[in-house]
Amino acid sequence: MIPRPYTDLAFQGWCFAGERDRGESFYKAVFQAYFVDERDIGDLSVLTELAENCGLSGQDFRAALVAGTYTETVRRQSRLSRDLLGIHMVPTILSGKKRLEGFVPNLIELKAWLDAVR
């Protein structure tokens, strides 16, 4: 999807879902919506629909995101990722001192990285 959407609301939605034991299902729904269905995960109505499909209250979900209930949580987690872990791009995969940043261009390179981690 071009332009790429802002993902702050999706992360806030994940916080909401996680507090209600639906974080994993919400994560998978957002992943599917963006990477497979090419939906705008920066759009509150799209996220609300996904939340409802995960068994969450759409009204409570929307209210929490509009109120900014999880804004500071997401900012704090972003700072932690950046400052403590040195993450400046996504995806970034860390395993001990080994890191893989950005998309891997081919399976051979990914396999080599995984073998080095082992």
TrEMBL record:
Superkingdom of this protein's organism: Bacteria
Gene Ontology MF terms: oxidoreductase activity
Gene3D superfamilies assigned to the protein according to its UniProt record, in alphabetical order: Glutaredoxin
Pfam families: DSBA
Domain DSBA-like thioredoxin: 13-101
Official protein name in the record: DsbA family protein
Organism: Dysosmobacter welbionis
